Amino acid sequence: MTSDVFTLQQGRVPLLVSMPHVGTEIPADQRPRYQPRAVAQTEDTDWHLERLYGGLARELGASLIVPRYSRYLIDLNRPPEDTPMYPGASNTELCPTRFFTGEPLYLEGRAPDEAEKQRRRETYWRPYHQALQAELDRLKREHGYALLFDAHSIKSELPWLFEGRLWDLNLGTADGRACDPAITATLSELLAGQQRYTQVANGRFKGGYITRHYGRPELQQHAVQLEMCWRCYMREDGSFAYDDARAAEVQPLLRQLLQTLLAWKPAP
């Protein structure tokens, strides 16, 4: 299924993989608003995740939803009312106004007003979320439950967003509320059992809007987020280049995570 906003590939198992920040396009009519730096390179993209996860998801029979447009246009992982996800910390908005380095994203006086934000919500945000929920509903009809894996990545050092160097692998389940406790426990155990990558569960990144909103265990919808540092699979030198060797090292662990999630079954 393809729309102007996203592409959805429907799978055969009760797992949907979402990648809300992989889009890189800014519509032509909106580009004059932005700093040239933003138009030249949407640097805060979750780079290459479709390449990293896509083959794994398809091999396992999972569904996959991928957006077209950049988070610089609208952040699909923020609530529609634009409340902060992490009170007390630096946050990006539904329609972000800053780069992850803290500098203004828009030219002076060109940031979107409330009418433009509402237009973007209806044009780009709402169709993605309607499709996401519809796919979870389809999976529940077919399997009795649905699993959502929200895939993200980020540069490992961004002082405006967090102090120091971020853990390589950051599992988020909204402090355990977004899924069955056994899912948090088994995925955390898997990550803690390997030595190659630093890891944490429900640390700086506990899961954004998608994990928190769609993670409804009481409705047999279980959601987890993995925020992975770029250094695990790509270059952090400003080239934004995919690193085949690094990717080949982390992909077996990502496969294990997805397989472990799929191995979970609800109690009869």
Mean pLDDT score:
96
Radius of gyration of CA atoms, rounded to a whole number: 18 Å
Q: What is the number of E strands? A: 7
Helical proportion? 25-40%
Find the structural class using helix and strand composition: alpha/beta
- In spatial order, strands of the major sheet run 1-3-2-4-7-5-6
CATH superfamily placement: Zn-dependent exopeptidases
Give the CATH topology: Aminopeptidase
| Count of discrete structural domains | 1
Q: CATH class, anyone?
A: Alpha Beta
Topology:
Blueprint lengths: L5 E4 L5 E4 L17 H5 L8 H12 L2 E5 L46 H30 L2 E9 L14 E4 L8 H12 L6 E3 L7 H6 L6 E9 L14 H20 L5
Parallel strand pairs: 2-3, 2-4, 4-7, 5-6
Antiparallel strand pairs: 1-3, 5-7
Helix pairs in contact: 2-6, 4-6
What does this structure look like?
The protein is an alpha/beta fold. It has one domain (6-263): Zn-dependent exopeptidases (Aminopeptidase). The chain has six helices and seven strands; from the N terminus they run ββααβαββαβαβα. A seven-stranded mixed sheet has the order 1-3-2-4-7-5-6, with helices on both faces. β5 (169-172), α4 (181-192) and β6 form a beta-alpha-beta unit. α4 (181-192) runs antiparallel to α6 (244-263). The longest helix is centred in the middle third of the chain and has 30 residues, at 114-143. The two termini are 33 Å apart. 38% of the residues are buried. The model has no long low-confidence stretch (mean pLDDT 96).
